[in-house]
Amino acid sequence: MTEGQTLEAQERRRPEPEAAAPPLLTPLTGVVGVLLVVCFAPYLKWMWEIWMRSDYYGHGPLIPLISAYLIYTKRGRLVAAEDGHNLWGLPIILVGLVLYAAAVYLNVNFPQGFAMIVVMAGLVLLLWGWGRAKLLAFPIAFLGFMVPMGRVLVTQFSNPLQLGAAGVAAKVPLLLGVPVKLHGTTIIMPGYTFEVAQACSGLKSTIAMTALAALFAYLVAAPLYKRLLVFASGLPVALAANAVRISFTLLLGRAFGNAVAEGFFHTFSGLLVFLLGLLGLFGVAKVLRCERMRDDIW
Fold first, then answer.
1. Which residues contact 122 (CB under 8 A, 6 or more apart)?
2. Dmax over Cα atoms in the chain, in whole Å?
3. What three-state secondary structure class fits 45?
4. Cα(45)–Cα(32) distance, rounded to whole angstroms?
5. Could you tell me if 273 and 286 are in contact, meaning their C-beta atoms sit under 8 angstroms apart?
């Protein structure tokens, strides 16, 4: 074999270099991202102000950080996913823009947040294709939990929750033999009276716990129907945890007075609700036999 034939044979045996993965961040996506921020800048400013002053959405800044982390864990699969564009993203973007324009015209803030998320989903589908859109579906949808509700909705949801929380919490002292009178949201016991105010309705913990339940359901390794059951349990778990908190407040107020019940305990009762809610979610997962967490998102 001549020297030329030898070199030719070596070239044939040499493995071909792998094709470079298509980049995710291109000048086009950068420009689109800037335009998205500029378009929704008034809403983003409003949302940040609500996060900073509202008791109901103190968890708001955590939601985009969690979504960003979930996207980061998928970086390898995103790069390896099939590249391409999907024109079905255009009608999705159009729907989001129409919703945004209508919300701005009607001067209603919270739908603007959902419109922004719809536009983001449409842009991902249009620019990156269906394969990457599926990978990013949950991180993008999870952003919905950062959108503050309007005051009217807060009031409408708070009132029935106040009544329900007062009714459930008042039964605990009764079971222990303590006489209780319930007048609307006011719980009256000998030596202590407690008013279930709007802040104690459980709406705050319900909003945060629903977001936590969605994330928890996404993280567990289980069939889809079990994940949906875990997510659906977030609401009753949050309400139950809030009722337990109010019951503890009643018992402490009866035993030690207002200073203990609505002072020290009230300060840390939010942490108690969170811990009880988290334990409740783990309990639901155990009953459904889906305790193991996914190993592809860490």
1. 89, 90, 91, 92, 93, 94, 95, 96
2. 107
3. helix
4. 19
5. no
CB 85 within 8 A of CB 129: yes
37 is written with which tokens? 């921020």
Cβ-based neighbour number of residue 239 at 10 Å: 21
DSSP 180-203: -EEETTEEEETTEEEE--GGGSSH
Nearest Cα to Cα of residue 214 among 277, 162, 149: 277
| β-bridge partners, 189 | 192
Tell me how far CA of residue 230 lies from CA of 73, 210, 253, 273, in angstroms: 23, 10, 34, 18
In angstroms, the CA 177 to CA 182 distance is 15
The answer to whether the predicted template modeling score (pTM) of the entire model surpasses 0.85 is no
pLDDT values of the chain reduced to their tens digit, one per residue, 298 residues: 555 555 454 545 544 444 344 456 677 777 888 888 888 999 999 999 999 988 788 889 999 999 999 999 888 888 888 777 888 999 999 999 999 999 999 988 889 999 999 999 999 999 888 989 999 999 999 999 999 987 766 777 788 888 888 888 888 888 888 888 888 888 888 878 888 877 777 788 888 899 999 999 999 999 999 999 999 999 999 888 888 888 888 887 777 777 666 666 666 777 788 888 899 999 999 999 887 888 776 6
Q: Which of 67, 48, 241 is nearest to 140 (CA)?
A: 67
